[in-house]
Design brief:
By secondary structure, the protein is an alpha/beta fold. It has helices at about 15-20, 30-35, 40-45, 50-65, 85-90, 105-110, 125-140, 155-160; strands at about 1-5, 25, 70-75, 95-100, 145.
């Protein structure tokens, strides 16, 4: 089984992957950055959001196919904004885990991260984006956990039973 981890910026998606080092995993943002040879923030600021989202969709398909039968993928905060990406996850029968984080907590966690072009937006715009995405995450996910690492199961075998 492949499990995709979704959540807003700062929810702990990359941290979640590190909890299970024995599992084949792909951090989609790192995967794309390595393929591009540059920081994603730089790519977005030079090529634009549409080019980034197109590349993200291509990369998601490659990541799923490279994992085989079992693994974890941490999605970018906006990966699920595209219906085609949600359809791709359904097509490959990827389970989706939502890491739920409070807006203010997310903002504290990512404060000052210059590689996050979303932070170029106002607080009101970010809150609107957060609200929109949380709705998508809840509709798409098979399971949800709070964004607190100390509440996550530490055993992969146990964790898989949630699905």
């Amino acid at each position: 089984m492949i499990i995709a981890v979704c959540g807003f910026m700062g929810a702990g998606k990359s941290t979640f992957l590190k909890m299970y080092p024995e599992v084949n995993s792909i951090d989609l943002d790192l995967f794309m950055s390595e393929k591009l040879g540059c920081e994603l923030g730089d790519f977005i600021r030079t090529k634009g959001w549409e080019a980034f989202r197109d590349y993200e969709s291509e990369s998601l398909k490659m990541a799923i196919e490279s994992l085989g039968d079992e693994g974890l993928i941490s999605l970018g905060g906006g990966t699920l904004d595209r219906e085609s990406n949600r359809e791709l996850l359904r097509k490959y029968e990827v389970k989706v885990l939502h890491l739920s984080v409070d807006f203010d907590e997310a903002m504290l966690r990512i404060e000052g991260d210059e590689n996050r072009p979303q932070l170029d937006k106002s607080r009101e715009e970010l809150l609107e984006l957060f609200t929109k995405r949380e709705k998508i995450f809840k509709e798409t996910s098979n399971f949800s956990l709070p964004s607190q690492a100390d509440l996550w199961p530490t055993n992969w075998t146990v964790f898989k039973t949630f699905f």
